[in-house]
Every structure is written in structure tokens, then in C-alpha cells.
Specification:
The complex is a heterotrimer of chains A (about 350), B (about 375) and C (about 575).
Chain A: H1 2-24, E1 32-38, H2 42-55, E2 59-65, H3 68-77, E3 86-91, H4 92-100, E4 104-105, E5 128-141, H5 142-148, E6 168-171, H6 177-190, H7 192-205, E7 206-210, H8 215-221, E8 227-231, H9 232-240, E9 245-248, E10 256-264, H10 270-281, H11 283-292, E11 295-296, H12 312-315, H13 321-339
Parallel strand pairs in A: 1-2, 1-3, 6-7, 6-8
Antiparallel strand pairs in A: 3-10, 4-10, 5-8, 5-9, 5-10, 5-11
Chain B: E1 13-22, E2 25-35, E3 40-44, H1 51-59, E4 66-71, E5 74-75, E6 87-90, H2 101-110, H3 116-129, H4 145-157, E7 163-167, H5 175-192, E8 195-200, H6 203-209, E9 212-217, E10 220-225, H7 227-232, H8 237-242, E11 247-255, E12 258-261, E13 264-267, E14 278-283, E15 289-291, E16 303-313, E17 317-324, E18 332-337, H9 338-342, E19 351-355, E20 362-363
Helix pairs in contact in B: 2-3, 2-4, 3-4
Chain C: H1 25-56, H2 68-75, H3 77-110, H4 116-124, H5 131-142, H6 160-185, H7 188-196, H8 201-230, H9 233-238, H10 245-255, H11 259-287, H12 304-333, E1 334-336, E2 340-343, H13 346-354, H14 358-388, H15 393-404, H16 411-422, H17 436-446, H18 448-460, H19 466-472, H20 477-506, H21 522-531, H22 535-566, H23 568-571
Helix pairs in contact in C: 1-11, 1-14, 1-15, 1-16, 3-4, 3-6, 3-8, 3-12, 5-6, 5-12, 5-22, 6-8, 8-11, 10-11, 11-16, 12-22, 13-22, 14-17, 14-18, 14-20, 14-21, 18-20, 20-22, 21-22
The chains are: A alpha/beta (about 350), B alpha+beta (about 375), C mainly alpha (about 575).
Chain lengths: ~350, ~375, ~575
């Protein structure tokens, strides 16, 4: 005890010092720190950040990641005092909404000219531009299908069949960008009345509305719920992981949205933000997007992905982001009123 | 002990008008007390009488609400405990369990930046003083209760304080250890000449150890005096009752020097009574004179016939429960040596005579 | 001290002014520290709670709207349903967990069955895991691909059923600890007396055991109830379409970014927990008279039939508990549930390390370490000042009150309060927002009460006169604090550290609103992984947390053992003491 008592004071002192260091974290060098809100999948963030830092090593990106719905709600809630410098990889329909609220800083990034007209804001300079297209896909578990005697669906309408009761999950449109474009695609494709009628029928078969667009496909992959309405990137990775899923692209047409980028108005780091926008529009960046998505904003870069049909772009429905943005609140309110009881938390 | 000759005149410790209340409970009502240098004074009283509170006020561990304390000519009324000059020993020993005996005794010395060899010498001296010279390397948990209390005493004396405060130091010990330590503490105190206050509720302890006893009750001092004086001439009924056993005989003064108790007039060794006033006579049981022959002193003053109601054996002596015969004289008890009972004639039911000596009959308060 | 003096006693005799003792600078220092502790507690506990009250009566733009938002909330049937769902589930969980835990504790204390030490450890294992682990594991057992799905007879595990069984698992160890303590405290002499009077076993159970454990049972029931009401991880993962209050707060705050609505739901959630807390508190107040200081521990005697039955019961429960933990670990190590059950580390390597999610595990370790270290220092230091210095009785009473409040505040409510309070532009401490420090602060405050009670109990068991002796020896209080108080209380101090560490590793409700991109924690990562459907990596992360917590517990056990052996000399009780 004697040796001990003399030293415990010192050990505590050094431990506290260590704790202080830990708590403060490693101090960043004199880097510009860019706060970027994103809904990109976690497994994509790292590659994009590394790609950007290759050309801009002096700018550090601080990601705030959440689902499309959460990021959108967060940005709207912070309208009076915006925190983010840049929004990257968030649905174009959400960015149109922010633009309508006057929250975006228009900017023409370096490679703007190369980006297809339909994948960027029509204004010049544009308030936002697209990075890539992500669109609907259905994950269908073949093993469970055999066990449970489920036919492979080919169309959206097939999913209404009673045989699928309790077998389908889809993302919640309020929180998931995927869920939202599913809903807006149905409404635009078939008109409002028929669209809602379709969803009423589909709702009967839905087991769960999930928080994220990825989860339905993951659940399908694990056989938990054999059919998951998801998007093609997640469908691809799930199949690649060895799960017994077939990726189905319903014949009526596929809902889609753009992962897009915009600079927030009032950012104190406009120069750095522009650099990120420049990079995000660049060919280098597009090549990175192309690893995950079948369609990127600059034509001619995308390579065919396994499990995605060559005419994928043609299967996309006509999507009016302006309409989706303006009606976002109304659509979600109506949706909640009709189906909220089965929604997964959040 | 050290040269505490700041002021050689007057008492070493003087308390004036010390009052203290806890919320609405008044624990001490204006205590005045002077303690001489080198004296061992005990605060004696039942629990809740305020004796420990008074001790803690002297130590500065409690603050009095009113009153002043002067120690060795210095007004310490407002000094915090750490600035006062005393050593203290508690009932619980309060030895630091994780420190060796040596470290415990040296605890206060180390802080005074004394030299290492000086500390070693002092600790050895103190351990020898309390009779445990070889215990330095042990831990408190390895010693008996009495040994621990000796170490606590050594620790309290280590820095040669001018005042030693003992708060019920023997109460946690078994009877044998208590007796032995009682003598040791007293001897040590006398050898060192350190002014000491001992708080106790044990009258025997107070009587055997103290130079003077301060009898306390309900926040007040009932009596201050030497053990003999307090025992033999208690100042108040409380003092009489708390210290030793005593017979109480209610009566009415029947003249300047006599009191009528249950139809019998008892002669007193005083002649200042006002006839007709109600008084209470106090008589120690050992002062009752017992005659085996019921005919002894028939008709003599203060002698009456009685029957032995019971005999209580208390070791060295026996207590007789007596019922005086005839008139409604109150029952009383008498102490007699054990061999007197052994000799026969004092069995329950025996008829005897007793004498209540006038000099032993007192009126108090 | 009950003597003649009463309220009508005469006033002080001596003339003059009231004496005020001068304060030594050391006493001033102690009082200053005490006030600082009190201020810190008030600031970091009451500040956030106050902000919730404020926000609940404001609209989004900060205008006062009174109870409008409450009316709004209660007017929405789906949200109103949450209240009944929450209370219903909590009552069912309490009703099942308490008898389960009581029987288990009864077997551990009153039977002579073999393997008690093992059962005890296994019974407490759920404490090492975040509540999410239970939910994930039960999905694996009872979900559509679950091995035991047929047992549910068609009822889906998603929903009330899943919440109930997961919550039973998560609350079991908490109830077990409390009831064990209560049963261990029971006086063996009562049983001896009963046996000598020939009292029958059953009667003994109802006349001695149950009444003796009554306060422990109530306390355990309140803790289980509060835990279930407040927990958010379980219903989030396995609740399916079954809405509960804790998840509603999350939906409002994260999904809708509607902090004001979140504050309203918080207050509604706070209510039942507060009621449970007050009930428990009042019961504990009455308990003290029950145990005499001389109680003799009960020693169980062999009764083959009873011991056998208890052994079977405990084995069953232990296997169930291990099955839950085991399924999560298993899930983390197989390639592809349920189609390719070959061993694979890919959920760790690919799912956690390559995905960058592993960072959150190190964040959690860091956060837990800092919480354990600084939290223990503050809590023990504050308890020391409270118990062992004197002066300022009002401040002391306030600290006692503040220290007991966190037990009655659900983590989600505290967490929401923290964002509201520290994100406020006028708060000078808003630099803490989005730092690891704020996570540490919230966690320390969240788990303050139990730690504080441990510290106070340890300090109270020290001789009350150490400080008086030090003062008489002219030794500063802080010197005695470090030479005597801390070494003697070391086992309790380590215990507090372990408790804070383990809870910091698993906590989710208090921190789910507070983490930033740089300070994401492991338990939150599990939640996000589950949301993305990544069950394998989620299970892997849960397994890592269990391993970390278990390591710290083993370390604690080893250090304590070494300490006790090294200090055996002075810890051996004195004869006759």
C-alpha cells in the first residue's frame, strides 16, 4: 500500500491528461472543414471522399449522413440558421424543394457542360446538378419463393396479388428517398386516383414499411420477407454477397431520382464548396459513381452492371422533380393518413 | 509536555456562556466552566445531556451559537478546529485502517515537516509510552480493541498538544480491557501532566479517573466537584441519582432539625428547616446501618424495625431490599458486605433493625 | 437527544452575538468545491430538463402556445395509442421479469444447489450487451427464418411480442441484482427462529421471505418498468408497426426534426417513469428500520428436492439467456443468414472495418473510458464533499436531491434536453455541441444516481471521525482524502468506474440525439446498420461491445482481487469488531 499511495495521485493525473486528449480528439491541421449533408450509402462515402481529397488535400469533408427524408427534414428545420455547407448525394426532388425555399446557392461547376440536360437544374447557373441516377428494383428471394410457392413477379401490379400477402417490404416514403420515388412514380405514371388505388391494394400485402431503401432488399436476401422493393445498387450488392435473390425490374416503368449536389446559400466556405462541386461534376467523380450506378449524369461513362439490363435508362418513368418537390408535403401527409399504421419506426 | 507557558495565571481552559442548539433543540444552555492546567476533568451524564457536544465545541468540530472559549490565555472561540491545539481520541478509535500503526501515529507529525529521524524517534517513544513498542508494522485491524485505542491515544499525543480530549474512549471495549485501560490512561495523563477532558456516561469511570467531575443533564451543568464531593455531597437530586444508588425519602419538616417520614421523625445534622415544608431526604444505601437483632436501639432516634424483602448479590457486597415495619415508611435499600450476609440472619423475611445516621441524611437542591 | 428542552425552551443564556466560527482556507476550499459540484449538477441536469419544458409550450418559431401541442398530440389517435402500448408492454414485462428474477435470486440465496457462482454470472450477462442485441437475436430466433418460429404459433415476432421478450431479457439482470441484494440482506436469525418454532417452509416463505424482500421487489419492479418504458433500441428494431413513446420521440426529433413535438412526447414519457421513481423513493425511505445492524446472513441447508428443482430452473434460465447472447455472436460469424451458415469473419472485416463503421467502436471505447474516469472522479469527489465536509446544509440537501433525479429521467428525455440546451445559441457552453465531451456529460448524468449511491454507501461505512482526527492533527482534508479515503474506498471506486464504462458502451437512448459524424458510437452504429438491413455487421458490432464490456468486468474482478490480497493485512476485520 505504501508504494501505491504515493503514486495513485500521479497515475490519476496522467490518466486525466490522457482522457483530455482523447476527449478533444486529434486536432486537425489547418484544413478547411466542409460540413456536407448526405444520404449516400455509407459504403460509398469513403471512396468519394478519397477521390476528392486526391485533388483537394487541404479540404476535409465532415459527413452528416442520414436517410433522404431525415436529411431533408433537417435542412428544412435549419432553414433560419443553416449548418451545412454542401448537400451531396441527396435526392434531386428534395433539392428542388430547398431551391423553392430559396436555400440553395446557384453555381455552375467546372464540368457542367458535360452533364446531360435532364440530369441538372434547368436554370443557369443551376441550383443543383445530378451525380447519378438511382432507380427502383425489386429483390426477389428465389429460395423462399420455391419453399412458399411464390411466383416471380414481373410488374408492379403483380405485387397486389393475394399470394404475396405479408411477403413484401418497402421503404417508408417519408424517410427514404427510394420510397418517395416509388410513390411519385406510381402517381405520375397512373395518375393520382389510380396511383393511390394501386397503393391501397399493395398496402394489403406489405409486411413492413422500412426506414431505409436498403433494408427491404437485405431482408429479402435473408429470406425474412421474400420480396423487397428497393433500388438497383442495393439489389446488386445483395446479390453479389451471395444471397439467393433475383433482381426484378417491373415492366410498367421504374421510379427514380438523382443523387444530386447543391451548395447551401450563406455558406462561409463558398470557395471550398465550389471545389467540391467542381470535383463532383468531374469525369473522375463520374467514374466512381459508375462503379455503383448504371446511369451517371455525364453520358458515355457508365459501364453495364451485372444484373442491370442494358436498356435500363429507357425503363425509367418520366419524372418531374418540380412536381414531386411541390407536392412532397401533400403526398406524404396523404400517405401517412392511409398507411401509417404499418410503418416501421421513424 | 511542551512549554505551554503562554499564560501561567488563571485556568488553562475557560468556557463562558456556551450555548448551542440544533434546529429547535437546545443542546447546551449557557455553560460556564474553568479547567485548570494538568487537570483531568470528566463530563459525565446520560446520553443526550450535551457532554459530547460540549467536547466537540471545545475541539472546534462544532461551532457554539453563543459563548467564548479561552485556552491558555488565547481566545479560540472562532478558530476552526485545524487551528486549535488539542489531540482527540474517539470511541471508535478512528484509526486509518489502510495505514500501519507507525504511519497512524506519525500521521500528524509528517505534516509538520519534522525531520525523518525525529519522527522515527517520536513514534518509537509514543509506542513505548502506550505499551506497544513492537506494533509499528502492523495494521489496526490486526490489533485488539484496547490496543487500537492505545494507538489512537499515542496518535493524539504525538504532537504534544496542550489539551487532550477523550470522547467515550472506553465504551467500545470489553469490561476487563476497560478497567485496565482506565488505569493506564490516568497514569499516562498524570505522568505527562496534560490537561484532559474525558467524556463518559459511566459513573464508575468518572469517579475512578477524574480530578473533577462535571455532572451534566439536559444541556446544563448540575454539579462540578471532585469525585468524592460529587458522590458524598451531590448538589442536585439528578447528581445524587445519576452517580451511585440513593434512597429517596419524601417527608415534611417537623422542626428545625427533624423531618417526619411516614410517621417517624428523623433527626438531621442541621437545624435550618422551616417547619411544615415538604422535603426529600437522600440517603446512600451503604450509609444505612443494619442490626441483625431487631431489638437493637429500640426507641433510639433514627432507628427502626424492618423486614428483609429481598437480597441481591452483587459480588463484593449485597443489596438488601428493606420494608420498614409499622407506619407507612417508604421501602429502602441498604448495602452490606457479602460476609455479613453469609453470617446469616439477613435472609428474605428476616426481621432486623436499621439506623439512618443523621449525618448521612441529606436534603438536596 | 430527547431531553426536557422543547420548542418552548428558554432562549440562549449568554448575551452577545451569535458566534460564527472563522473558516480555515481549507474549509473554504471544500465549500467552494461543494458549491461547484452542486452548480455543475444543476447546470447539466436541470438546464436540459428546463429546456424541454420550455420547448413543449412553444411552437417551431419559439412563440408561446401553451398546451396547444399537447392537445394536438393527444388528438392524434395513432400517437395516443402509443401511450397505451408503452404502458401495456411495460406492465407485462414487469409482471413476467420480476417473478423470473425473484425465483432465480431465491435459488441463489436460499438453496444449496451447485454452481451458484456460475448462475450468478450468467444471470447478469445481459447487462453487457446493448438492448438492441436482444432485439436482433430474437429476430434471428423467432423471425420468419427463425429456428423457433413455430413456437410462436403464427404470431409475428415483430411487434408487442418481440418487444416484451427482448425487454424481459434486457431487464432481467437489473431486477436480479436488486432482488439478490434484498434477499442477501435478510436476517438469518429470523429463519432460525422460524425453524425452531417448526414453521413450515411455505409459511416461512410467505411470512419471512416475501415481506423481507418486499422493498427490493418494489424497487426492482419500478426499475424494470422504467427501463421498458424508456428503452428505445428494442422497439426500434423489433417493434415493427407497434408504436411506443420512446420511438415516437425519435420519429419526431430525427424523422420530422420537430423538437417541440419531441419535447411534448418526452414529457408524456417522463410522467410514468417519474411516478415509478417517486413510489420507489418513498418505499426506500421506509426500509431502513427493517435491517438491524446485527443481522446474521442466512446459510442454506441441503434439501434435495428443492435444490434439484431450483437447479433445473436456473439451468433453464441460464441456457435461455446464453441462447440470446449466443445467437447474436453466431449471427456475426456466419457468412449469409440463413443460406450459408459457414464460418466467416466478413461481417467484421468487410462489414465493419472496410465500411469504416469500426471507428464508432473506438469512439465508444474512448467515450466509455473518459466517462468511467472523469465520471468516477466527479461522482466520488462530490459524494466525498457531501458526506465528509461540513457547512452549507442547504447546498448539501440540494446535491442529494439532484443526485437522485437522473434515475427518474429516461435517457431519450435527457438526450433531447441536451440538444435543446446545448444547441441554444445563447448558451456559452454550446461549443460542447457535437463533441465527445457532451456524450460523456450526458452519460455521466444519465447514470449518476446508482454511482452516487455506491459512493455514498462506501463513504458512510468509513469511520465518521477520520476528518475530525485529521483536523486535530492539523492535516489538510485533501491529504486524508488521498491517503486514507480513496485507498479504503478503492473497491467501490473501481465498481463505479466499471458500472459507468459498461453503461457507456451500451447506452443508446441518451446519446442517439447527441452524436456527431465524428463521434458516432457503437450502439448507434448497430441501430443504423439495422436500419440499413445489415444484420450481420450489426450483430458483429454488438458482439464487440459485449467483448469490451466483459473484458472490463474481468479486469475489474482481477484488479479487485489483487487489491484485496495486497491489502489483506488491513482489510482483515479486527477480532470482536
Amino acid at each position: 500500500m505504501t508504494q501505491f499511495r504515493g503514486t495513485w495521485w500521479h497515475s490519476v493525473a496522467s490518466a486525466v491528461a490522457a482522457a483530455g486528449l482523447l476527449a478533444s480528439g486529434a486536432a486537425f491541421a489547418q484544413k478547411t472543414e466542409l460540413l456536407v449533408y448526405t444520404a449516400l450509402e455509407t459504403d460509398q462515402l469513403k471512396a468519394y471522399q478519397e477521390g476528392f481529397n486526391k485533388t483537394n488535400p487541404d479540404i476535409a469533408i465532415k459527413w452528416v449522413r442520414d436517410s433522404t427524408g431525415v436529411v431533408t427534414a433537417k435542412l428544412l428545420a435549419e432553414k433560419a440558421n443553416p449548418q451545412a455547407d454542401v448537400v451531396m448525394g441527396v435526392a434531386a426532388s428534395s433539392l428542388v424543394l430547398l431551391d423553392l425555399e430559396g436555400m440553395l446557392q446557384p453555381y455552375a461547376p467546372a464540368n457542367l457542360g458535360a452533364i446531360s440536360a435532364q440530369y441538372k437544374d434547368a436554370k443557369n447557373p443551376p441550383a443543383w446538378f445530378g451525380m447519378d441516377v438511382w432507380g427502383a428494383a425489386i429483390c426477389f428471394n428465389t429460395v423462399e419463393a420455391q419453399k412458399q410457392g411464390l411466383p416471380k413477379p414481373g410488374s408492379w401490379k403483380d405485387l397486389q396479388k393475394p399470394v404475396y400477402k405479408g411477403k413484401i417490404t418497402m421503404p417508408h416514403p417519408a424517410s427514404s428517398g427510394t420510397g418517395f420515388f416509388d410513390v411519385t412514380a406510381w402517381l405520375q405514371m397512373w395518375g393520382e386516383a389510380d396511383g393511390w388505388k394501386y397503393m391501397d391494394g399493395l398496402h394489403e400485402n406489405i409486411a413492413q414499411y422500412t426506414h431505409s431503401g436498403s433494408k427491404p432488399c437485405r431482408q429479402a436476401g435473408a429470406g425474412e420477407f421474400p420480396i423487397g422493393i428497393s433500388f438497383e445498387y442495393r439489389a446488386n450488392t445483395t446479390k453479389a454477397s451471395g444471397a439467393p435473390v433475383d433482381v426484378v425490374f417491373p415492366v410498367e416503368g421504374l421510379g427514380w431520382d438523382l443523387e444530386a449536389l447543391a451548395i447551401m446559400k450563406g455558406t462561409k466556405k463558398l470557395e471550398a464548396a465550389k471545389k467540391l462541386a467542381d470535383w463532383a461534376s468531374s469525369r473522375d467523380a463520374m467514374e466512381l459513381y459508375a462503379k455503383n450506378f448504371a446511369i451517371v449524369a455525364v453520358p458515355g461513362i457508365a459501364k453495364p452492371l451485372p444484373n442491370v439490363p442494358a436498356d435500363y435508362e429507357k425503363r425509367l418513368v418520366k419524372n418531374d422533380f418540380g412536381w414531386s418537390a411541390k407536392n412532397r408535403d401533400r403526398i406524404l401527409t396523404e400517405w401517412n393518413k392511409r398507411y401509417n399504421a404499418k410503418a416501421e419506426p421513424k | 509536555m511542551a512549554e505551554n507557558a503562554r499564560s501561567s495565571e488563571g485556568p488553562y481552559l475557560r468556557l463562558t456562556g456556551i450555548a448551542k442548539s440544533f434546529g429547535r433543540f437546545q443542546a447546551l444552555h449557557g455553560i460556564d466552566l474553568a479547567i485548570e492546567r494538568g487537570e483531568l476533568v470528566t463530563f459525565l451524564g446520560p446520553s443526550g445531556c450535551g457532554k459530547t457536544t460540549l467536547l466537540r465545541i471545545v475541539a472546534g468540530l462544532e461551532a457554539q451559537d453563543w459563548g467564548t472559549i479561552v485556552q491558555d490565555g488565547r481566545d479560540i472561540s472562532r478558530l476552526p478546529a485545524i487551528r486549535r491545539d488539542y489531540g482527540i481520541v474517539f470511541q471508535s478509535y478512528a484509526l486509518f485502517p489502510n495505514l500501519t500503526i507507525h504511519a497512524n501515529v506519525a500521521y500528524g507529525l509528517v505534516n509538520r515537516r519534522k525531520g525523518r529521524s525525529e519522527i522515527e524517534r517520536r513514534v518509537a517513544e509514543l509506542l513505548k509510552l502506550v505499551g506497544l513498542p513492537d506494533s509499528g508494522a502492523k495494521y489496526p485491524g490486526q490489533l485488539s480493541g484496547g490496543q487500537q485505542q492505545r494507538i489512537a491515544l499515542a496518535r493524539a499525543l504525538a504532537s504534544a498538544p496542550g489539551l487532550l480530549l477523550l470522547d467515550e474512549p472506553l465504551s467500545a471495549l470489553d469490561a476487563l480491557e476497560r478497567l485496565r485501560l482506565r488505569g493506564e490512561i490516568r497514569a499516562l495523563q498524570q505522568r505527562l501532566g496534560v490537561t484532559t477532558i474525558l467524556v463518559t456516561h459511566d459513573q464508575e469511570e468518572a469517579l475512578s479517573m477524574a480530578d473533577r467531575i462535571v455532572v451534566m443533564n439536559a444541556g446544563r451543568i448540575e454539579q462540578v466537584g471532585s469525585p468524592r464531593a460529587v458522590y458524598e455531597t451531590p448538589a442536585t437530586p439528578f447528581a445524587a441519582d445519576f452517580i451511585g444508588k440513593i434512597n429517596v425519602l419524601p417527608g415534611v419538616a417537623a422542626g428545625r432539625d427533624r423531618v417526619r417520614v411516614g410517621g417517624r421523625a428523623l433527626l438531621l445534622a442541621r437545624n435550618d428547616l422551616i417547619e411544615g415544608s415538604a422535603v426529600k431526604l437522600y440517603l446512600r444505601p451503604e450509609d444505612v446501618v443494619v442490626h441483625r437483632d431487631p431489638a437493637t436501639g429500640q426507641g433510639a432516634a433514627n432507628t427502626l424495625a424492618a423486614q428483609v424483602a429481598k437480597v441481591e448479590f452483587l459480588g463484593a457486597f449485597c443489596v438488601l431490599g428493606l420494608a420498614p415495619e409499622g407506619t407507612d415508611f417508604p421501602a429502602l435499600s441498604a448495602n452490606v458486605p457479602r460476609h455479613a450476609v453469609d453470617a446469616g440472619g439477613l435472609e428474605p423475611g428476616a426481621h432486623i433493625a436499621i439506623t439512618l445516621p443523621p449525618a448521612a441524611l441529606r436534603i438536596l437542591g | 437527544m430527547a431531553t426536557a428542552a422543547t420548542a418552548s425552551a428558554p432562549g440562549p443564556v449568554a448575551a452577545g452575538r451569535v458566534v460564527r466560527q472563522a473558516l480555515h482556507w481549507q474549509e473554504r476550499l471544500a465549500l467552494a468545491l461543494l458549491v461547484a459540484c452542486c452548480a455543475a449538477l444543476a447546470f447539466f441536469l436541470l438546464g436540459p430538463l428546463f429546456m424541454i419544458l420550455v420547448k413543449s409550450v412553444q411552437d417551431k418559431d419559439g412563440a408561446f402556445v401553451g398546451l396547444l401541442q399537447f392537445r394536438d398530440y393527444l388528438g392524434t389517435p395513432a400517437l395516443r395509442q402509443s401511450i397505451f402500448n408503452t404502458l401495456g408492454v411495460a406492465l407485462v414485462v414487469t409482471g413476467i421479469t420480476i417473478p423470473l428474477a425473484f425465483t432465480f435470486a431465491y435459488a441463489l440465496t436460499r438453496s444449496a444447489m451447485p454452481g451458484k457462482a456460475v448462475f450468478r454470472v450468467v444471470g447478469l450477462t445481459p447487462i453487457l450487451a446493448p438492448s438492441l442485441l436482444a432485439a436482433i437475436s430474437f429476430i434471428q430466433w423467432f423471425g420468419n427464418q427463425g429456428l423457433l418460429k413455430p413456437l410462436l404459433g403464427g404470431t409475428p415476432v415483430y411487434g408487442a411480442l418481440g418487444i416484451v421478450i427482448s425487454s424481459i431479457y434486457a431487464t432481467f439482470p437489473h431486477a436480479l441484482m436488486i432482488i439478490l441484494t434484498a434477499l442477501l440482506l435478510a436476517d438469518g436469525r429470523l429463519y432460525e427462529a422460524a425453524e425452531s418454532l417448526g414453521t413450515r417452509t411455505l409459511r416461512r416463505f410467505f411470512t419471512i421471505t416475501l415481506p423481507g424482500a418486499k422493498y427490493g421487489l418494489v424497487s426492482a419492479a419500478m426499475v424494470v418498468f422504467s427501463y421498458t418504458v424508456s428503452d428505445f433500441g428494442i422497439p426500434k428494431v423489433i417493434g415493427g408497426n407497434f408504436n411506443v413513446l420512446a420511438v415516437d420521440i425519435y420519429k419526431q426529433v430525427i424523422g420530422q426534426q420537430n423538437f417541440n413535438k419531441g419535447a411534448v412526447v418526452s414529457l408524456i414519457l417522463l410522467l410514468p417513469v417519474l411516478v415509478a421513481f417517486v413510489v420507489d423513493w418513498r418505499m426506500q425511505g421506509r426500509q431502513h428500520a427493517q435491517f438491524s445492524a446485527r443481522a446474521v446472513p442466512y446459510v442454506a441447508r441441503r434439501k434435495p428436492w428443492f435444490d434439484g428443482a431450483m437447479f433445473v430452473y436456473c439451468t433453464l434460465v441460464a441456457l435461455l439467456l446464453l441462447a440470446v447472447l449466443g445467437m447474436a455472436v453466431y449471427t456475426s460469424f456466419i457468412k449469409l443468414w440463413p443460406y450459408d451458415k459457414s464460418f466467416s469473419l466478413r461481417h467484421y472485416t468487410f462489414g465493419l472495418v472496410d465500411g469504416g463503421v469500426i471507428v464508432s467502436f473506438f469512439n465508444s471505447l474512448r467515450m466509455a473510458f473518459v466517462t468511467a474516469l472523469l465520471g468516477t472522479m466527479f461522482i466520488f469527489g462530490c459524494a466525498y464533499l457531501l458526506e465528509k465536509t461540513r457547512g452549507m446544509p442547504g447546498t448539501r440537501a440540494l446535491i442529494r436531491l439532484l443526485a437522485s433525479i437522473p434515475m427518474g429521467v429516461p435517457g431519450m428525455v435527457l438526450g433531447l434536453g441536451y440538444i435543446l440546451f446545448f444547441n441554444h445559441p445563447d448558451n456559452p457552453f454550446n461549443v460542447l455541441y457535437h463533441t465527445l465531451t457532451i456524450l460523456v456529460l450526458a452519460t455521466v448524468v444519465h447514470y449518476y444516481t446508482s454511482s452516487h449511491l455506491t459512493a455514498v454507501t462506501a463513504l458512510k461505512s468509513l469511520d465518521g471521525e477520520f476528518e475530525s482526527v485529521s483536523a486535530s492533527l492539523k492535516v489538510p482534508f485533501y491529504k486524508t482524502f488521498h491517503r486514507v479515503t480513496v485507498p479504503v474506498c478503492l473497491p467501490a471506486i473501481l465498481d463505479i468506474g466499471r458500472y459507468l464504462f459498461v453503461n457507456a458502451m451500451v447506452t443508446i437512448s441518451a446519446v442517439v440525439f447527441l452524436y456527431s459524424p465524428d463521434t458516432q458510437l457503437a450502439a448507434v452504429a448497430i441501430l443504423n446498420l439495422d436500419e440499413a438491413g445489415e444484420i450481420g455487421p450489426a450483430a458483429a458490432m454488438a458482439t464487440l461491445i459485449v467483448v469490451a464490456s466483459a473484458s472490463v468486468c474481468v479486469l475489474y474482478a482481477l484488479v479487485t482481487r489483487v487489491l484485496l490480497t495486497r491489502t489483506q493485512g488491513w482489510r482483515r476485520p479486527a477480532p470482536g469488531n
